[in-house]
Amino acid sequence: MEEKIVKPIWQEEFRVRFWDVDKTDQLTLSGTFDFFQEAAIVHAEHLGVGKKVLEEKQQAWILSRMSVSIERRPRKDESIIVRTWPRGPEKLFVLRDFDLLDQDNTVIARGRSAWLVLDMEKHRPLRPQPIVEHMPLNDGLNALPDGAQGIDTEDDLVKIYDRQAGYSDIDYNGHVNNARYVQWIQDAVDPEILYDANQMRLDINYLSEVKPGESISLWACPVKAKKGTWAVEGKHFDSDIPAFRAQLWTGK
Fold first, then answer.
1. Which structural domains are found in the chain, ordered by start?
2. Can you list the residues of the chain whose pLDDT is less than 50?
């Protein structure tokens, strides 16, 4: 039997399709999150720590924080290369980095995510070391060293709109998909700001899950200390408990 070759860095080529772009024919932030999410899921399965393996142990990966910085937005029909790799544990988190390259092998987007290993029965995070001890660490390969940090709430948030989680928002884990939150964030700011942005960055903390039928109120305001940055927060409609907290920089 041929021995499996473990790939410490996963790489896939995609083409930017019309559903990945906005009216400027440029890749959206949520589209970038979709590409990164897809590559992360496939690589976790390749490394033997995917969804099915963890479910057998009554455990699950939970995305806690993610940061994506786009230096150039690729256009519709452009071929891109998505790479992802684990970076090992940091306290209770397991870090995973990403980058996105164009056909000239120029990095045009970078990302960092922080994941928790959840005990599904007790709904509590576990020490990740037993899960990641056989995973590659990729020491020194840092895509976005300042990413996946905690975000403080802003005092001047203004309610923008309410949103109920429907069928199209829910992923196979039974709650709103992480990239769907990014679409909600995009809808909370002036679209002209997004159309005009050639570079952008989103930092997001996922704080509590949103299940089918639950309603979320979206709040936003400019961040006074960071020019060109918007704070966006989603709160459970009935309790005001935050579901996510984010900062979006567009330079505008």
1. 1-145 (3.10.129.10), 150-252 (3.10.129.10)
2. none
